[in-house]
UniProtKB/TrEMBL annotation, chain A:
Protein EC: 3.6.3.14
Record PANTHER family: V-TYPE PROTON ATPASE PROTEOLIPID SUBUNIT
Organism, scientific name: Anaerotruncus massiliensis (ex Liu et al. 2021)
Family: Belongs to the V-ATPase proteolipid subunit family.
Molecular functions (GO terms): hydrolase activity; proton transmembrane transporter activity
Annotated protein name in UniProt: V-type ATP synthase subunit K
UniProtKB/TrEMBL annotation, chain B:
Record family assignment: Belongs to the V-ATPase V0D/AC39 subunit family.
PANTHER family, per the entry: V-TYPE ATP SYNTHASE SUBUNIT C (PTHR38682)
Keywords associated with the record: Ion transport, Transport
Gene source species: Anaerotruncus massiliensis (ex Liu et al. 2021)
Keyword set includes Transport: yes
Record flagged with keyword Transferase: no
GO molecular function, one term: proton-transporting ATPase activity, rotational mechanism
Protein name per Swiss-Prot or TrEMBL: V-type ATP synthase subunit C
InterPro entries xrefs: ATPase_csu/dsu_sf, ATPase_V0-cplx_csu/dsu, V-ATPase_V0D/AC39_subunit, V-type_ATPase_csu/dsu, V-type_ATPase_csu/dsu_dom_3
Length: 160, 323
C-alpha cells in the first residue's frame, strides 16, 4: 500500500508540471504568432510584444515549482519515500489546483495577450494598459500556486 | 488550435488597418479642388503601384491587387474567401459568353481576381466545353450560351448568370463557419433580389421573368417579392416593410443608388465589431470588405471630380468607412 502512496504523490507532481507546462506552451506559442504578426509590420514593436508573449509562460514555471516542492516533500529527491496511501492522495489533491488552473489560465491569458498585441498594433501608445489585461489572469494562477504550496506543506506536517 | 484562430494574420491585419482611409481622409479627398489633386493625395498615401502619373483605374486595380496578395500571404486556404470572388467569376462568365456569341474582341472587360482564371472560362466557352468549368458554373454557362446564341436575348443571358452568381454566394454563406461571411452572403443576395425586383417592376416584367431572376435567400420570400414586383412599387415597399429590410424602404423610394448605399452601409456596420476581434477569419474578411468599400468610395470621388460634379452630389454617394 505504501508504494501506492508515493505513486499518487508523484502523479500529482507530474500533472502539475505537465498540465501547467502544456498550458504555457500553447499560450506562449499562440501569443508568439500574434507577436510575429505585429513585428512583421513594425520591427520596433519587438520589445513590447515580447513581454506580452512571455506572460502566459509563468504558469509553466509555477507548475515546475509545485512539482519540485512535492518531489522534495515526498522524498523522491532524497529522504524517505515511504508515505501512506492517504498522504499520497493528499499530495495528489494538493497539486491539482496548480495543474488545472495552470493549464486553463495560461490559455486564457494567451488569448488576452493576443488581444493586447492587437491593441498595440492599433494604438502603440497603450502599451502600459495593454499589459494589465493579461496580467489580471495571472492573479488566478498565483492563487492556485498559493493553495498548492500551502496544501503541500500542510500535508507534509500531517502524521498519517 | 492556432490554425483556425489566424493569430498571426489578425495581428498583421490590425497594423494594416491603420492605413485604411477613415472619414477624415475621405473628407480631405472630397475637399480636393480637382481630380489631379485627389490622385496626388492618394499617391501620397501610398496608393497605386509606385509609378507616377498612372490613371485612376490602374491605381484602384493596384490597390485591389495589394489586398489580395496580402490575404494570399496570410491565409493558406483562400477558398474561405471565395464568397467575395464569385461575383467576379460570374461577371467573367457573362463577359465570355457575350464575347463568344457576338464574336467581338476582348477589350479589357474581364476581372483578374476570381476563383477561376478568366482565360480558362473564356476557353471553355469558346470550345463549348462547359465541363471544363467548375461544377456550379456548368449549367448556367450552357443555359446562358444557348439563350444568347439562339434568341440573341442578352437580358435572358444576364438573369441566368446573375442568378447563378447569387446562388453561389448564398451557398458559400450557408456553408461558411464564419458568421460574418454568412451575413455578408445573405445581405448581398437579398439586396440583389430587391434591386432586381424594383428594376423589373419599373420595366414592367412578367411574374415569370421576375421569379426566374430572383435567387432564393433566407431573409426574403422571393415568391412574395416577385408577386409584389409584378404588382406595383408600393406592393414591393409594403412587402419589404414586413421583412428585415424595412429600414431600406425609404432609401429604395429615394433612388437605386441610395438603396445601394444603404446596403453597403449595413455591411460596414455589421463588420465594424470585427475591429475588436483578435482571432478568427472575421477580421480578415472584414478587412477585405473594408478595402473594397474604400476602393468603391475612392472611385466615386474620382469619377465625381473628373466629371466636375458638385461636392454635395459626390458626398451623398459616399459610404461609411470601416475605420
Amino acid at each position: 500500500m505504501s508504494s501506492l502512496g508515493i505513486a499518487f504523490a508523484l502523479l500529482g507532481a507530474a500533472l502539475a508540471a505537465l498540465m501547467a507546462g502544456i498550458g504555457s506552451a500553447i499560450g506562449v506559442g499562440m501569443a508568439g504568432e500574434a507577436a510575429a504578426g505585429a513585428v512583421t509590420e513594425d520591427p520596433n514593436r519587438f520589445g513590447k510584444v515580447l513581454i506580452l508573449q512571455l506572460l502566459p509562460g509563468t504558469q509553466g514555471i509555477y507548475g515546475l515549482l509545485i512539482a519540485f516542492i512535492t518531489l522534495t516533500q515526498i522524498g523522491i529527491l532524497g529522504g524517505d519515500p515511504n508515505i501512506s496511501l492517504v498522504k499520497g492522495l493528499l499530495y495528489f489533491a494538493a497539486c491539482m489546483p496548480m495543474a488545472f488552473v495552470g493549464l486553463w489560465s495560461a490559455i486564457r491569458q494567451a488569448r488576452a495577450s493576443v488581444a493586447s498585441i492587437s491593441m498595440i498594433c492599433k494604438r502603440p501608445e497603450t502599451f502600459g494598459k495593454s499589459m494589465i489585461f493579461p496580467a489580471m489572469v495571472e492573479t488566478y494562477a498565483i492563487l492556485a500556486l498559493l493553495v498548492s504550496i500551502l496544501s503541500i506543506f500542510g500535508v507534509g506536517g500531517l502524521s498519517l | 488550435m492556432s490554425d483556425s484562430l489566424y493569430t498571426y494574420a489578425v495581428a498583421r491585419i490590425r497594423s494594416k488597418e491603420l492605413s485604411l482611409l477613415n472619414s477624415q481622409a475621405i473628407e480631405q479627398l472630397l475637399a480636393a479642388k480637382s481630380y489631379d489633386e485627389c490622385m496626388r493625395l492618394l499617391a501620397d498615401r501610398g496608393w497605386g503601384d509606385g509609378e507616377p502619373g498612372i490613371g485612376a483605374e490602374r491605381m484602384l486595380a493596384a490597390e485591389r491587387e495589394k489586398t489580395w496578395s496580402l490575404i494570399g500571404e496570410l491565409v493558406e486556404d483562400m477558398s474561405v474567401f471565395d464568397v467575395f470572388l464569385y461575383a467576379n467569376d460570374y461577371h467573367n462568365l457573362k463577359a465570355a459568353v457575350k464575347l463568344v456569341c457576338t464574336g467581338e474582341e476582348d477589350f479589357g472587360i474581364f476581372i483578374s481576381h476570381g476563383t477561376v482564371d478568366y482565360r480558362a472560362i473564356l476557353d471553355a466557352v469558346r470550345q463549348k466545353e462547359f465541363g471544363l468549368l467548375p461544377e456550379a458554373m456548368r449549367a448556367p454557362a450552357e443555359e446562358a450560351y444557348t439563350a444568347l446564341s439562339q434568341t440573341r436575348d442578352g437580358q435572358l443571358c444576364d438573369i441566368v448568370i446573375d442568378r447563378a452568381a447569387l446562388e453561389a454566394i448564398e451557398r458559400a454563406g450557408r456553408e461558411s463557419d464564419s458568421e460574418l461571411i454568412a451575413k455578408y452572403a445573405e445581405l448581398t443576395v437579398a439586396a440583389a433580389d430587391i434591386k432586381t425586383a424594383v428594376r423589373c417592376q419599373k420595366t414592367g416584367k412578367s411574374l415569370e421573368f421576375i421569379r426566374r431572376a430572383l435567387a432564393p435567400c433566407r431573409s426574403l420570400d422571393v415568391y412574395q417579392l416577385a408577386r409584389a414586383a409584378a404588382d406595383s412599387l408600393e406592393a414591393v415597399s409594403d412587402y419589404l416593410s414586413t421583412t428585415d429590410y424595412a429600414a431600406a424602404v425609404s432609401a429604395l423610394e429615394q433612388s437605386p443608388s441610395a438603396f445601394e448605399r444603404w446596403c453597403d452601409n449595413v455591411i460596414i456596420e455589421s463588420i465594424r465589431p470585427q475591429q475588436f476581434q483578435a482571432f478568427g477569419i472575421g477580421p480578415l474578411a472584414a478587412y477585405i470588405l473594408g478595402r473594397e468599400n474604400e476602393i468603391k468610395c475612392v472611385r466615386i470621388i474620382l469619377s465625381g471630380k473628373l466629371n466636375d460634379l458638385p461636392e454635395a452630389s459626390i458626398r451623398e454617394r459616399i459610404r461609411e468607412m470601416y475605420v
